[in-house]
Amino acid sequence: FVRERxxxxxxxxxxxxxxxxxxREPVVVDLGCGPQKQYPGNLxxxxxxxPGVDAVADLSGSLPLADNSVDVLFAVHILEHLTDFLxxxxxxxxxxxxxxxxHVMSPWWGHVNAVADPTHVRLLDVQTFKGIxxxxxxxxxxHPLHAGxxxxxxxxxxxxxxxxxxxxDPTHLAR
Length: 175
Fold this sequence. Notes:
By secondary structure, the chain is α/β, with parallel strands linked by helices. 21% of the residues lie in helices and 27% in strands. The chain has 5 helices and 7 strands. The chain is globular, with a radius of gyration of 16 Å. The termini are far apart.
């Protein structure tokens, strides 16, 4: 309720992702949305059926989305629940269009929220996303648009790189 009301006033419902892309509405997907999407018009995928979930999908496997079909993916408080989240990150790379963005948010490993929830099986840090962006050749590659920590949560905005794009600059990854 608060998110909806504040969003109406200040535009914080992820409306920055609602801008038309090449004359068409963007395809925005909330991974693991549960009953609350980042924006009401987004496509919601979750492991369990709930109000707001448009398709039931196991996020640890293949996403039921076509290659290069999505402009924006939200993975808000999802990765910490997956024993191995790299397959989901690889699937995100597959479904995002060139120039698309994966928005990730997770509890920071040093905050009590990271360990207070018994369903959390992973601890994450900004360095985790730098590691994702610097993975070995032959794996889907990412460029970090932004990664940071506010003392409670970590967040990153990643865009997929193609096979011909250069690797992220080491000085950029070091920031």
